[in-house]
Design goal:
Elements: E1 7-11, H1 16-22, H2 24-33, E2 38-40, H3 48-61, E3 64-69, H4 83-96, E4 101-104, H5 115-133, E5 138-142, E6 150-151, E7 154-155, H6 156-162, E8 168-172, H7 173-178, H8 183-188, E9 194-199, E10 201-204, H9 216-224, E11 227-230, H10 239-248, E12 253-256, H11 266-279
Parallel strand pairs: 1-2, 1-12, 2-3, 3-4, 4-5, 5-8, 8-9, 9-12
Antiparallel strand pairs: 6-7, 10-11
Helix pairs in contact: 1-2, 2-3
């Protein structure tokens, strides 16, 4: 039976720069003051100090950690811990932060552009999901648009789904739309495999013309840059329908993520998203 409500939270990549400036404790205090009582930890250095301060803030301000993040293997040129090299620490951090979910944030760069390499990743990720399950932790995979490449007429994301039985999925509304699919209908197709859903809106911004003299390379950069991430409810996606499809499919956590706020304070962007979700009737979804 479907649950009646979920918990709306913040994907912490949205506030990573704020946390770097203000520290974990003060940043999460500000989030709680905005009415957010759930976080997904991503793109935050998992130093002992940050883990301790996040734990203290969660205890003091009534914040639930939905999930933590790790890659399967070290990512070339990218910071962060990997399950193949830091398994015990990652499990211990999940236990410390009282979460039973871990997510892989993207397809490894080394596996992009190859069906065979992607399937090798899928096999090892599903094996890792089974291993994590022995510690009471579920593993989820977060999509971007790149998984909507087709191999033999099938989306890579669907190939990943069909070749895993232990790993679940964290679907992202913006990236599904950018991948060319209707996020509402696509979410429905993953019912039973999702406990996490990213609420990320999509908009076409105003074209800002480069300063003269005209250069085609600069113009094309500006032309492509009109595709933007938006505060939830400020874009063109059917957010309410996405939420309801996620809820019906088993999603428990609905996490606001905005990759770029285009000069606006991320906390202000989160306030706008909060207000719009309350207007849509989800005010009680901010409460534990």
């Amino acid at each position: 039976m479907a649950q009646n409500k979920g918990l709306i939270g913040i994907q912490m990549s949205t506030i990573k720069n704020t946390l770097a400036e203000r520290g974990a404790y003060d940043t999460l205090k500000a989030c709680a003051e905005l009415g957010y009582h759930c976080i997904e930890i991503s793109q935050i250095p998992m130093t002992p100090e940050n883990v301790s301060e996040m734990k203290r803030a969660c205890d003091d301000f009534g914040i639930k950690v939905s999930s933590c993040t790790a890659s399967l293997d070290p990512m070339p040129g990218m910071p962060g811990e990997s399950l193949s090299t830091d398994f015990d620490k990652i499990v211990n951090d999940c236990k410390t932060l009282d979460t039973n979910m871990l997510r892989i944030g993207m397809l490894p760069i080394t596996c992009m552009g190859s069906r065979e390499r992607a399937l090798d990743f899928v096999k090892r990720a599903d094996e890792m999901a089974e291993r994590l399950g022995e510690h009471g932790i579920d593993l989820y995979y977060h999509n971007h648009h790149i998984e909507f490449v087709k191999y033999d007429g099938q989306y890579l994301l669907d190939i990943i789904k069909d070749n895993t039985k232990h790993m679940g999925f964290e679907l992202d509304t913006h990236w599904i739309h950018r991948g060319g699919e209707n996020p509402v209908e696509f979410i429905k197709g993953y019912a039973g495999r999702i406990r996490l859903l990213h609420l990320k809106d999509y908009r076409i911004g105003e074209l800002v013309m480069p300063e003269p003299p005209f250069e085609i390379k600069k113009f094309m950069g500006a032309f492509a840059g009109v595709v933007q991430f938006a505060e939830v409810g400020e874009g063109s996606l059917p957010i309410k329908e996405c939420i309801e499809a996620g809820l019906a499919g088993g999603s428990e956590y609905f996490l606001i993520e905005q990759d770029d706020t285009y000069g606006r304070d991320p906390l202000e962007s989160l306030r706008i998203s909060r207000d719009n979700l309350i207007k849509l009737g989800y005010g009680d979804w901010f409460e534990l």
